[in-house]
Specification:
Low-confidence stretches: none
Shape: elongated
Structural class: mainly alpha
Number of strands: 0
Distance between the termini: 23 Å
């Protein structure tokens, strides 16, 4: 898999999941901007909210590390070296390299 996207599960107001967590008193976050998959917004059952966030950040930093990106993209790059078409649009290899590096930079800020 050349590119993966990972987020924390978050309850959306009006959903069954949100209603269940609210009824159990497990939602602690009130800032709507935090309900985006990058933060824990409720108390998970089998770990702390901090453990969930730490695990998510570990996953991002591990998956988007340079060694991991190189390993995941090696086969694709071998089959299809990065290039652009006659209009300047990147091929799949070039696009996957760019997206992985963009996510690498983004997760370094967390």
């Amino acid at each position: 898999i050349e590119l993966g996207l990972f987020s924390a599960l978050f309850p959306i107001k009006g959903s069954h999941f949100y209603d269940q967590l609210a009824a159990e008193g497990r939602i602690f976050e009130t800032d709507a901007t935090k309900f985006n998959g990058q933060y824990s917004t409720y108390h998970p059952k089998n770990m702390s909210a901090e453990e969930l966030e730490d695990g998510l950040r570990w996953l991002w930093k591990s998956y988007y590390s340079k060694p991991s990106i190189k390993k995941r993209l090696a086969g694709l790059i071998k089959r299809l070296p990065p290039s652009a078409d006659r209009h300047g649009f990147p091929n799949t290899s070039a696009l996957m390299m760019s997206l992985n590096m963009a996510f690498k930079v983004a997760v370094e800020e967390f």
